[in-house]
Amino acid sequence: MHNNFNIQNQIEKTLHSIDDINTVDANPYLATRIFAALHNRTQKNIWSKIAIFICKPYIAATAVILLVILNVVLFTINASSSDQDFAISKTATTTNEFAINITSMYDTENINP
Amino acid sequence: MTGETPVLQHTITSKFNFATLVNAQKNLVYNIALGIVQNEADAEDITQEVFIKVFDNISNFREEAALTTWMYRITVNCALDFEKQQKRQKRGGLLKRVFGDTEMLNTADFHHPGIALDKKEEAAVLFKAIKKLPDKQRAAFVLHKVDLLTNNEVANILNISLQAAESLQVRAKNNLKTYLQTYYEQHYK
């Protein structure tokens, strides 16, 4: 009981501890710092603005997603075209290897088409 | 002071100069930020950010409220955003939130420079408890008790009604009592 009374007392004391709080003066150089920051900001060139724009998380995420989509699309296109190329080159190799396109014996010595 | 840099010479409107505004308001903006984030270096960063935002957006200011009210609203929002960002960056933030009760005992003490020396210890405990309040309650309590603004000003800054501002403060005080009760029960064991 006595302890509880102490705690309630302490709580009230704590709640009133900021009653006569004083306003704090900011660092005297804060204004200079603000003006310097504004001054530097206005001097930013186009490249730093572009860099800041690219570095924004949603821009970077969008770029990555687009890159992945582009990769998938290119991979799909290449995969289908390389299948066709492979089939053509396989036919050509077989034709050359077994001389299927040569019909007579004289043709074997004929270098010119 | 007004002739030092081109920025200083830059007149935002025909009515006043930006340098005059900074010099007149920097202390109050700093105090509001300090009350919320409870760190002097962070409060300075926020003050700088606030004035940059004011500089950038002054053309959007519609004069529905006083310029100072608008600035203090930006300050409160910047300070609360800064806090959220800090919380996100902390490692193990989720675990700390789950075991939230121990946070109050473990965080470093903040000694507000405007508190009298004999009350510093109690005030440090109170500031720890203030940090645990929900955002709106914390803002209302800090603006009224730490920055000594009237309830009307608090209502205008938070863009709520006077009754809502008073209600926030009552709830903040009740929550503070609960936090302090827990703290002192653990402390007196």
Structure description:
The complex is a heterodimer of chains A (113) and B (189). Chain A is mainly α and 113 residues long. Helix content of chain A is 68%, strand content 0%. Chain A has helices spanning 2-15, 30-42, 46-54, 57-97. The radius of gyration of chain A is 40 Å and the shape is elongated. The model of chain A has no long low-confidence stretch (mean pLDDT 80). Chain A is built from 4 helices and no strands. Chain A starts with a helix and ends in a 16-residue tail after the last helix. Chain B is mostly helical and 189 residues long. Chain B is 71% helix and 0% strand. Chain B has 10 helices and no strands. Chain B starts with 5 loop residues before the first helix and ends with a helix.
Strand content of chain B: under 5%
Largest interface: A-B, 30 and 44 residues
The amount of helix of chain A comes to 55-70%
Order of helices and strands of chain A: HHHH
Largest sheet features of chain B: none
Number of strands of chain A: 0
Which structural class matches the secondary elements of chain A?
mainly alpha
Q: In terms of per-residue confidence, which ranges of chain B show pLDDT below 50 for 5 or more consecutive residues?
A: 1-15
What attributes characterize this protein structure?
heterodimer, A: 113 residues, mainly alpha, 4 helices, 68% helix, 0% strand, elongated, B: 189 residues, 71% helix, globular, disordered N terminus
Summed up, what is this model?
The complex is a heterodimer of chains A (113) and B (189). Chain A is mainly α. Chain A is built from four helices and no strands.
Fold topology:
The complex is a heterodimer of chains A (113) and B (189).
Chain A: H1 2-15, H2 30-42, H3 46-54, H4 57-97
Chain B: H1 6-9, H2 18-37, H3 40-57, H4 67-89, H5 93-98, H6 103-106, H7 120-131, H8 135-146, H9 151-158, H10 162-188
Helix pairs in contact in B: 2-3, 2-4, 2-8, 3-4, 4-9, 7-10, 8-9, 8-10, 9-10
